[in-house]
Design brief:
Alpha-Beta Plaits, about 100 residues, alpha+beta
Amino acid sequence: MRSYELMTIHRPDLAETEVRTAVGSIETALKNQGVEVKETEFWGKRRFAYEIDHMREGFYSVFYLEAEPGALDDVDRTLSLSDAVVRHKFIRVDNRKPVTPA
């Protein structure tokens, strides 16, 4: 299994309770695909560095995951089609130890 991070940005016009419900449904979808959700962080509403689809802010969430390589494909497709999600990104995290200078 590999380690991944998933960051999602939800629309700013949603209520915070709606966003938290959506985050819970993303967790459920991940677990249904056999993905182990290690931790979920809800960062709240933050400003963008630049406008995305005429929006200047959004609700950020970060998921820390353990999954097999192909297990995230269906969730990726679902998030791409969701109107509530402005952006999402899966990042593979290396488990290498940091190099210490000599």
